[in-house]
Amino acid sequence: MSRLVLAALTLSAVACAPEPHAYPAPDAHRALTGPGGPQVSFPADALWQDCAPLLGGENDEQHHNLVVMRDGLLVLPWAPEDGGGGLSFYTFDDPCAPTLVGEVWADFMRESHTLAFGEVNGRTYLAVDYHESEDVGGVGFFDVTDPSDPKWVSQLALPDYHYPDAYFRVVLSTFWLGDTLYAAGGLNGVYVLDVSDPLNPALVGQHTVVGHMVGAVHVVGDVAMVSSAGLSRTILYDVSDPWTLSPIPGGDFYVSSADEELKDYYFASLAGKYGLFARKSDGGGPIIYDLSDPTAPTFVGEAPTEGGDGGYVMRHEGFLFQGDSDRGLVYDASDMSAPTLIGEVDIAGDLDTVTPVGNVLVAAVDSKADDGRSSVVFPWAEAPDSRGPRLEWFRPQDGATLVPTTTALGLSFDEMIEGVTVFEGSVRVWTVDGEAVPGRLYTQENLVNFVPDAPWAEETTYVVELPAGGVADVSGNRVAETLRWTFTTGLELETPRW
Fold it and tell me: Which of 387, 392, 413, 358 is nearest to 477 (CA)?
């Protein structure tokens, strides 16, 4: 979305809504536990050269993939497909000299393709994939409130689980939204869990579509992108009732190349208004779709590679980062219709994941790594990141009407967000007559969701505000402009929405 459009949203909403009660200052969140993302500059000759490994704990089988920043620390998961692994927490302000802060081993943690955080009763939990035996597995939970002393606290076995079918009937990833956790289960579809008490999670539903091998669920408010694990199909769902996945008309599509040839992808992500798909098997490289109209997902661009076999693709501002198995790739995607390769990195092994963290990246391999080099840090830009995150897509959209009273409010940015900076002072919601709406906030990669403590009132107009100087990226750069928009709820009855 252009800045011009966002400016129009700001002007249209300001005129119709009084100021609510006094919110905390946009940056008055609690202090981060860690020092935050990279604050170091690099000379030109240091770019694309590795500068530090990231090590798992004792018994690390050197099967790594993504990392994330959370609470000012880098979180490194390390676990193989057949279970037994853990988490390591590092300082990362000096990324070539990371310092271990805390670590935990869990007998039953398996390879996790996302890291889903949730806060319940003042404690912070992390949902990961769980594997105990051939037919026993599902979702496990860490308490990571104190990163220096994280603990495995619970697990939930899910029906129809089976390993060693590595993608068919296991849990591949998780996404946390209010009291709901979505677990992607391959051919088992999407498991829907009640996680209002993470110490006692419960299965409340399972949504399957024959032949759709689900790899991930990403949610922006009332829209869920349910992507494949190794196939080409993607389905967009209405999740305004979070426990019910209702297909959006026109939102069931097969990822294709520019010449409309179907393309399987290994894994997908959602950043800003774009679905990002890592092409596999028939070469690699990213494929990009515009999802801003969920009833008409639209091909935008691609950057195919010869001989690659895509793993994961992630976005940082105007750049894309992809593990292509034989190497890691970085693209200038300021024009999403024509991503341009600007650099690459390489380490021994199956290099599936390249995670951007400010002006460095973390390349990770999930098999055949050299000892102690499953995750390696590479500078890719000289100066520390200094640009704040930009909101590109949100749901419900500005001026939306008949919005269900059970929906979440979703925000999708062009880069990863530091979750601690997302709080009542930086994401503000009130009724058009000025009554503040309390709620809970959830951050996963580039996505932020607000879940009201009680259902939205019927036939009521709400104002959403992101004040300048509030939400920050993982390097501490904050939103530059104040944005406002409105939406209006409907009655509590079935109404055509799409």
Answer: 387
